[in-house]
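Re: zinc ion structure - here you go.
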Amino acid sequence: MPAKPLLLQGGRVVDPASGTDAAADVRIERGTISALGQGLSGDGATVVDCRGLVIAPAFVDLHTHLREPGREDAETIESGSRAAALGGFSAVCAMANTNPVADSAAVVEQVFNTGRAVGLVDVYPVGAITVGLEGSTLAELGEMHDSKARVNFFSDDGRCVQDSGLMRRALEYARAFDAIVANHAEDAGLAGDGAMNEGEVSGLLGLPGVPNEAEELVIARDLALTRMTGGRLHVPHVSTARSVELIRAAKAIGVNVTAEATPHHLSLTDTLVASFDSVYKVAPPLRTRADVDALRSGLIDGTIDCVATDHAPHAREDKEREFDKAPPGMLGLETAFAVLSTELVATGLLSLGDLIVRMSTAPARIRNLDGHGGPIASGAPATLVIFDPEARWVVDAARLASLSDNTPFAGRELQGKVVHTLLRGKFSVRDGEVVDGQG
Ligand SMILES: [Zn+2]
């Protein structure tokens, strides 16, 4: 028997895909939006009071580390899916640096199937560019693309493809099926054993640094190779002002490139490392205020197409090592929306509609994820986030759904809270709690 229809009543619908920003009720039947408008009848439906809330297409994350298979002590596909749903996401792209590496049809299908079985968000596996992330032999991109997981996004993230010839071949190979190559931009020689941003603060602290140029050289090279091959490049976690300039200039001459920035690079600086708390260690490293400001400008003008979390859980015994020995990475799924709502929307730098473009509409389009990113329209799947734009809350690392607790936002008061998340008409989160047993 089909579930009872739902009526989302009294909310404000903000949907960039259809250009909607208006008060409207949303009626949902059998997973699909059946009507949209003011004063819809609640007859026969479960009515959800959405007064004071915003209804938007659920968020899409192009950059998530779920750690399964291999490090299920840090995160699993299930725990990461719970974190994602609580953060308002309906789709996450699971990075390939697992153990075994997601460099074959077998592993990407395993990740895809587990995501479906959990059923809280759609998990789209990212395929490795090179076998075992070793950076020497191209992986079977075509085999992963033709698998049930239909992979159209490839990355060795965590590691950079250093060999320019190999990167060229990856772009050419992926072009055959209009797939995207995303390269973690970090020149190995320049990065060395750097543990933080190279600059004034690293000098004061006596920690080895990673210069901006380690990122910029690789982005400049990859943009040149993308132009040369006619391939599609996505630049993950842009962190420096000059990287933004490089991408802006490449777009101006028609290079097929998209780019993302993380909530942490858009809000935090390297001065936090003075605490020597390894929660602030991340790759690429937190940079300077000037870099943060340039990233914000790039996000506002669209040079940076989208936000991605780079959610990177680490078990406590790993992350609690000394700063220069601890693994890089921060949690992101459960705080991304609130951090950006607080830092960019509440401060008037970015409109709420543009934040929804950057967190939902744009990333869904980049990966061609039908059914995500809107539109909110009659006949479309009811895959929605419903949030309170005014609610304030304090991040409690111990209460996150992630199995790890390495959030740099612990103890921060944020504005903007996800209340409900819907995946094809079913609540994955209701009143701030995960709804299990989706079936
Ligand atoms: Zn990376």
